[in-house]
Structures are given as structure tokens and as C-alpha cells.
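help with this record:
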Amino acid sequence: MIGFFLVLGGWTAIDLDQLTVGFLRRWLTSLPTAWFVDLGLQGLPAVQSGGLRSLGAVALVVGGLPVLTVVTTVLATRVWETEPVSSAVLHRSRSLVGDGLAERLFAGHVSRPVLTVARKRWLQERRVPRALFMAGYVFLLVLLVVFPALVAGGVRLAPILVAFVLAAESGLAFGLTPVATEYSSLPMTFTTSPGEQFVRGTLFAGVAIGTPVTALATFGLGVLGPPGVFEAVLLGVTGAVLSVCAITVATAVGMGVSYRDLVAVPVPLTSSTMYGEIGGAGFVRMGKLLGLVAVVCSPALVGYLSVVFDPVSTMLGVPTVAVRVGSIAVTIGLAVSVSTVAYRRAVRLYDDYTLA
């Protein structure tokens, strides 16, 4: 697996040379990782390399590696070992309806049952960070989808592609495993939480974290890239809507899992366990999520291709920005429609779920 990612990374680095985007190249060459390239070029004839940047690479390894190791160990120990989930240690249990940050931010705006479901999901994520393990799939998406699409279609596609990737990550992390995360308490969950409250709480847990990140990243790339401020704002709205759509679709897909298909899976590098599907069923569900989100994104992706918006604007006699904005409007409308259908399906699957 490591070799597979290295090969993909090398191929991507080679194809990046085809990009004609100056700011992207300057940004990549300014990263500390570029210092190691200068370090590797030291001593080669007829090659100019930065001496200070090479020294910076050495200092980064010598000084940064021990610090990062200590910090990572301390944080991992705090998250995964100092807060054990055990019925024998009641005094360490954390109230889901207390006076925490979520209560101060959302009390009065979000109902208590919905907020309780969301807080439980956040606490589960803190103790067993399932979202971190899903990040590997996002890295794979970036290598296989984002960079090749940028090479083929240009940097104008970057905001939409990033919105797709971050929205998919939000769905994978918070929406695709509602039954698995509740496995140990499914009977209590089904008898105490109605379908609408549980689904809304699950959606809120993902939307509160994933949607702002997706919207800001999409808006930032729109401002830095060719689109103007007006388009950047619309792209940010598109990123937010796509994030909500991905989480909703993921929840609907995840509610179709039978509890009989779930088994205990050890968490790497820890003594904790989580529940998940074995075999290819889990990857099929991921494929459904990614496929549906890709379909929702497709109008905006097509509309932002120069080979599309230039001839269409000429044929209709409208500015090219009107074609791009129209494609964004179609994507937003499609995302709202798909989200509505997925939400109703998730609630129905929850209400009809049986443990027999």
C-alpha cells in the first residue's frame, strides 16, 4: 500500500509540470518539503540549489522530528488512553447535555435531542477518531481525481474539485457509519431517539465541522484563482451545499447496513476497537456515496470547462460568467433535491430498522 501511494505521488509530481498555474507552482516550491529537494541536489555539478534551504531541511529533521514525536505521543495518549469508555469508571463519564462548548454555541438554535445526538457523535470521534482513518481515502481521491482533472481541465476547476473532495470526506467521516458507531447501544438508541432526531443529530454533527471547512476552502480557492469575488462567493455556497448533500447521502447509505454484518475491528496502534463491515460491502457503500456526489458536482464541473462555457456563451450570446453561474445553480438545485430525498430515506430506514 505504501509503495502504491509513492508511485501515485511520483506520477502526480511529474504531471504537475504540465500545469500552467504560476501561483500553484510558487506555493508548492515555498513549502518546507521543497527544502529537501535542495538538500538532495547539493553537490551535483551545474545545478543551483539553495544552501540555506538545505540547512533548513536538516534543521527541520534534527529539531522537528523529536518534538513532533513527543507531541504526537502525548496527544495520542491523552485521547486514546486517559479517557477510557468503561462502565466501571462512572465518575469519568461525560454528560451529553452539560454546559460544554456545543451547548453555549448552539443552545436555543438546535433542539436538545438533536444536539445530544451530535455531542455523542463528537465524543465518539474524539475517543476513536474514525475520521482520521478516512483521510487516507481522501488522499487517494486527490491523487486519482483532483490532480489529473487539474492537468486536463485547468486550475479553474480547483474550487469545485476541492469542494467535492472535502464534502466526500465529511460524508465518509460522519455519515457513512451511523449504525456502526451506535452498535454497542443500538437497542437503547432505537427506543429512546426517534428517526428524525437521530438523523438530524447525525447530520448536524457532520455539518457543524465539515461544512464550514468546505465552504471556506472553496471560497479561498475561488478568490485566489481566475474566478472573481462574485463567483468565489457562489463557489463557497456550492461547497457548503455539497457538504450537506454528501453527509445526508452518506447517512442514507449507511442506514442500510445490517447489524449482523458488523464485526469488531481493532483500531491501529491502539488497544481500542470499533465496529465495521468486512469484505467489499463497505467499499461498495463508499462507491455509492462518491458516485452520487460526483453526479451532483458534474454540472458545475462541466460548466467550468473552457471547452464548454466558451462555445455555449457564444451560441447564447451571453457572457461566459453567466454560463458558469448557471452551472453552479444547477449543481446547487440538484444537491438540494438529492439531499431532500436522502434525508427522507434515512429517516424511513431508521424507523423501519429491525434487530431480529
The beta strands are 262-266, 273-277. The chain has two domains: 29-84, 97-351. Confidence is low (pLDDT under 50) at residues 1-8, 10-21, 85-91. The first strand starts at residue 262 and ends at 266.
